[in-house]
Amino acid sequence: MKRTADRFINILEKVAVSLVTLCIIGLMVALVWQVLSRFVINVPAVWTEEIGRYSFINMVLLGSAVGVRKNSHFGVTFFSDMLRGRMRDYYMRYFVNVLILICAAVMLYYGTIFAFRFGLNRVSPTFLTPMVYAFVILPVSAAFMLCFALYNIVFGDYSQQLDSVQEVLKEHESAVE
To answer: What 3-state class would DSSP assign to 130?
Structure first.
């Protein structure tokens, strides 16, 4: 069962990382074109702002899902750095990831309602397409986070993670000296 879950989660992670990469490329192309069209051609493109905004929003939301997968999502490490072994495993697994799971479930539920209730009635100002295409990233990224957090709760092992990171830091410090 773990092997099947590993395959599924790895495929999901590759999809999320690929989408984030596409968003970064879309953002960069839109920004470069905006600068060129405004200052070189002297005819600013109106579509670049909207593409840049949606690319950035999608990049942030999907990137946060990748952060859940890689356990680099939680900025407050004060408690987790003090814990060792089983206590660290329980804290990361049952406190941090369950909290993420709950937040992702709320985001999935209300994001879906928001995307379809408000997205079907509104159109984007530049492209005149339904805003549901822009809003659907909320439930999509929440679904990614939900899968990653659930995987971390069931299969994650955090008891050795901090020790290995500290060993790498010590090796780096000794190499620098």
So the answer is: strand
User: DSSP letter string over 64-103?
Assistant: HHHHHHTT------HHHHH--HHHHHHIIIIIIHHHHHHH
Residue ranges, the chain, pLDDT below 50: none
Question: For the CA atoms of the chain, what is the radius of gyration?
Answer: 20
SS3 content of the chain, % helix, strand, coil (to 5): 80, 0, 20
Count of beta carbons in the 10 Å neighbourhood of residue 109: 12
- Residue 90: its pLDDT value, please? 84
Query: In this structure, are residues 58 and 23 in contact, taking their beta carbons and an 8 Å threshold?
Result: yes
pTM: 0.82
CA pair distance 177, 162, nearest whole angstrom: 23
Domain ranges within the chain, ordered by starting residue: 2-176
Looking at residue 125, its pLDDT comes to: 87
Give Cβ neighbours of residue 150 (< 8 Å, ≥ 6 apart).
101
- Specify the pLDDT at position 60: 95
> What is the chain's length?
177
Residue 22 confidence (pLDDT)? 96
Q: Of the candidates 74, 58, 79, 73, which has an alpha carbon nearest to the alpha carbon of residue 141?
A: 58
